Structures are given as C-alpha cells and as structure tokens.
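Hello K.,

You asked for the raw outputs rather than the summary table, so here they are, unedited. I folded two proteins back to back in the same session to keep the settings identical. This is the first:
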Amino acid sequence: MSLPAPNSDALAASQALQQAIAAEIAEQGGAIPFARFMELALYAPRLGYYSGGAAKLGQDGDFTTAPEISPLYGATLARAAAAIMAQSGPNIIEFGAGTGKLARDVLNALAAMGVQVDSYTIVELSGELQARQQEALKEFPQVRWLSGFPDAFRGVVLGNEVLDAMPVELVVKEGSAWRRQMVGIREGAFTLLPAEADAALLEQIERQIPDAATLQDGYLTEVHPVACGFMRSLATMFEGGKGAAILVDYGFPAHEYYFDERSGGTLMCHYRHHAHPDPFYLPGLQDITSHVDFTAMALAAQDAGLAVLGYMSQASFLLAAGIGELLMRTDPEDALRYLPQSKAVQKLVSPAEMGELFKVLVVGKDVELDPAIVRADRSHRL
C-alpha cells in the first residue's frame, strides 16, 4: 500500500499501542479474539484511534461524515426528531457526536422551529472529540456529556455512523464448521489465526447468518455481538420511558450481507481519506469499521422489546423527512448560495454516492413516525 506517512509522534503512539496489544496477546497465551484487537485499536485509553488525540473527521482527518457535508442533514434529522419528541419528551441523546456539528445543526434547526430541547446528552468515548464538541457547542447550555447509557430516557436517540465502529468478531467457514479468527504474532507482525468458536459465538452466527450452511468453504465474514448488545441496551434504557432511536450507517440487510460474492467480509479501514482492508496497519492511527447487518440490529432490538418503526435508504429517509423542502428555502436564482447546497444534497441522496449504501433504522417504544417517513418504510426487506 502507498499511504501517507505519519509524523514521528503519531508513529510513536502507534508503536506504543502495538506493544500494549502484543503484551496482552502474550498474557492470553499467544492469541486474542479479533474483536478484542479491534477494541484495543479503537478504544485503548490514550492510544486507541478514538481515545487518542489525532483528528478523525473532515479534511485534516481520515473520513468525512454526512453532518460535515451539509447543515441540511442535521436540519432534516431535526424535523424527524421533533415529531418523536412531541410524543415522548424534549430530550435528545447522541452517541458518538463527532465534531459536534450534527448536534449544533440539530439544535439550531429545532430552535428555528420553536421546538424546546431540555437536554441534549452526548455519549462520547474520545477525549479529543469531546473537547472539540465542547468548543463547538459552548453556546448551548442544555448540552451535557456522559460516558454511558442513562438508566431511563424519554425522547430521541441519534446515532450517525456509530454501529459500524463497534468491534466485530471475524469468523471463517471451514468445511461445515465455523471458526473464530484470533489475532496472534508471527515474525513480529500481527496475523489472523483460526480457533474454535465458543457456544456464544456459534449461537450468534446461527442467529445472524441466514443459510450459513450453504456458504462456500473459506467464507470469511463478521458477526456483531457488541452492536447487538448496544441495541439491547437501548431497549433497557427505554423500559422506563418512551421515544425512538434513529440510527444511520452503511450496511445491508442479512440477505444482501452474506452471499458468495462477499466471501472476504466487509471490514474496511480509513486512513487520511484512503480506504484499505488491512486492520493491522498502524493500529491507533486508522479507523477500522465493518458494514452493519441491519437485520441483526432490528432483531436484537425487537427481541429486547423495542418496535422496528422503520428501515429505509438514507435517500428515502431524507427525502421523506423534507430535505428537498429545506433546500428550496434557498432561492435557486441565488447560485452562489444554492449550488453548493444542491451539490451537498445530491451527495447525500444520490444512489451513486451515500443515498443507497447508507441506511436508516428507527426503533422505539410507544411513538409513531411521521406518515411520510412511514410511507418510505422498507422493513419488510430486513
């Protein structure tokens, strides 16, 4: 691979993280599950990708998310959130708030609509990102930060590209059996090593992968126990309240996720706006993600007591929630202002850009979605 070289401080941080991971591998007898490696690479205190100090988002980071593209994205989410809050409570929780831009855009849009927000809680594991959020949101006194789920909640949960960054288990089919991919060290480098899958992982595979027996020998893919656990935690949080979670991410329903042409899985890494498949490249300096199995997420939420309120492409959701109407509030004759906004909306909704790869899953309790969004629902495809 030909990727930009890190500076000396970043390289030293990555080397320190690699030493820490190698020490844990040695302590565990020579191998750790891939999910544990991914957890350390992303979240190890002070050294992991999300807990370290490097810029993650935007031109100086490694990737760009929808909120960075246009404030109309947050304004459109605000319209959907307002309808849910009217039925539940004037509160929002955002998981993984990035630079804080989505929070700012949502709060500004709700204020313009005359919708009061009593609390906007951000659950953020990255100290660097939390510092950026605090600076971006210092004018909003209702914003606060937590490190985990509240006990109960009434309102709206927002999660933009959160599920894809949760550690996954890598599994490979060998004959008629599934084996877990572990991470060990050979010739001084991290490498994948197959091992027996325990009962819990086998149960996850059986629950998550349809027609697993028909997949080819050597088929490698991901299963998502951490993300499924997140969905169950959402359900627990809503037990004492009501509301809905709007989760936006890239991925597929199960019948599109697991088929022969995707025999190498969906794991992808992002470093300085370059995408590549090697999770062992400069641990701590690159993002490691997996496409989301939205069927597994919906089932986990449903099994825990939440209703699946809607599932659709990002394009369908944004159009149903009124992004076109928001765009037209800028006069098309004012080319200097209108054309950049129009180009940004095109990127968000075009099937060739983010419109179809990104999906929206809405789960909740005791609330209903706006009828226009309900008409766009494709949850029968999960």
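The second followed immediately with the same parameters:
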Amino acid sequence: MAKKRPQTKAKRPQITDGEIPVVGAREPCPCGSGRRYKACHGRAAAQAATELVQRPFEGLPGECDWVALRELVPAATAELTLKDGLPEGVPSVTLATVLPMAWPALRRDDGSVLLGLQNDTASGDISRDLADTLQRALTTEPGTPVQGRRAPADGPRLQDLIDLDSAFAPVVHSGFEFWVPDAENATPEVAASLERANAAAIPTVRLTGVDAAYWCETPDKNHLRWVMPHPEEQLLDALARLHAAGTSSLGEGTRLVGSFRAHGLTVPVWDLPSSVGAEEIEKPAAEFAERLAAALATDAPLTPDERRARGGLTNRQVTLS
C-alpha cells in the first residue's frame, strides 16, 4: 500500500496593507486572513468613511467662501490652482457650485475640468471625496462626466492637491450658463437641466468690502449671509455684546435674526428690507465689521443682558452640515 503523502496547505500570497484592494463588505478579505473584508481591512475604511470631519475646508485659501459656495450660493465658480501645476491637456480646473445632471465633475471637450461642490459625498470628509473626484477628472477622456464613488480612506485631500498660497476668488453668476460654452446649442438633456436650475436660482451677490458675505434676494425680503472664521463661542459672545447694545443691525429696517452652523464655521444672517440691494449694504457691512472686531477683542464676562441676547441667538441657530 502506498504511503499517504502528508498534506500541506498552499501558502497564500503575502499582500501588504498598501496593496489590499477594496472589495465587497461580505467578501473574503484579500489579505488572506479568512475573515470577511468588513471585519478585517475594511474596518478602517468603514470608520474613515463615517467619521465626520468638522471643518473639511480648513487650511484651504478662502475657507469661508468654500463653505458659502457649498451651502449658500446657487451659481458660482472659482479657478483652482494645483500644487503640481496642470497636467498636459488640461487648460484649467474650475470649481463650480453645481454641474448639469448633478455630475460630481466634468472633463469638457477642450480638456478643462469642472469640479462640482454641492454634491452628496460618500464619506464624512468632503475634502477627500472632492480630491478623489478631481484626480479622476484630470485623467478621464475629454467630453466625459465623472461619477461619484467612495474615495480611498488613505487618499489625498484637497489640501494636498491645491496650492495653498494661491488666491481663491469666487465669481457669482446670475444663472448656470457657465455649464456649456455654447448654451444655445446644448443637448436637449443639458438644456432642460439648465432651464430648471436657472428657475430655482436665488439672485445672489458677493460683497466686495468684506470677506465671504453674500446678499440674496427672496420674494418677501432680502438677506445677508456672512460666513465668519472666528471660533463659534467667541463669535457668539461678540454678537451678543453688539445685540444687547443695539448695534448688531446693518441699518434701519435690518435685523440680525440668527445664524447657520456649517462645516465648523458660523454664518450670521440678517433680514433686510426688499428695497435694500447689495450695493446699499456694502458700507453698513464694513462698519459692522469694525464693531465686531472691537467686540471680539473684549474678554470681560457677559452682562445679564448680553447673556440673554446670547441665549436668543443660540436658540435661533440652525445647523446646515
């Protein structure tokens, strides 16, 4: 009788952590551990995808304007400067609030790239998701939209791709004609999307005398929404001091009504009469900025009236993200 050969298990190929691909959550992990991906190397990816980055645009030039374009401004663009320069065949990279058909990004026929900002993202880090979309847009075929996906947990963020010393200068548009070089000859699908978007856009103007303040027109009244970089608690204290002193308005008929909280920053909001346009609010906004700077520099405890004013402002705060 022939002797039985001892059975030996074939050695699995050794894969380093950096080489392990992303697979389905219930599939065997490619590392060879025998466990499902979600219980092995997928655990870190899942945690990274759900962990919310409170200030995803922190460190970028114009952080306050990034927040405004993400949450408040219907139609705007801004040219982006990349750290390593533009790849061959890509004449420009432009950030846009919204793209046709809600595409995350679009590589135009001429090779230029449009990156959409107001799309839903797959993880808790908008910056990483946008960077992943941007990288894929730079290499996709001209004339092709880029679809969304879950960005690799160890992928770069916008802060790694964008020149942090460059200027960030948003241009606010009255409509979305910037989507296509020749709007009159757009495809029926894009033309219909353009018409719907233009009909829903609220007229918006970026003030020139102060940073990241946006006037907008609504049927009943106008508003000023001003994204501010100061720490939330310090800013609320300062606003409360001004409110209690009766100096928180922007002129006759205007009123500080509350604030938004968006991507780690605070956005005070004023109601304005319908007769007050963007130009009329420029000087009052600049004067308010001076009063606010003085209030921010004060570290005295709040008075009872100031505490009541602060409580009212806090109760009227709405979180957007």
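The CA atoms of residues 237 and 310 lie 7 Å apart.

Happy to rerun anything if the numbers look odd on your end.

Regards,
P.
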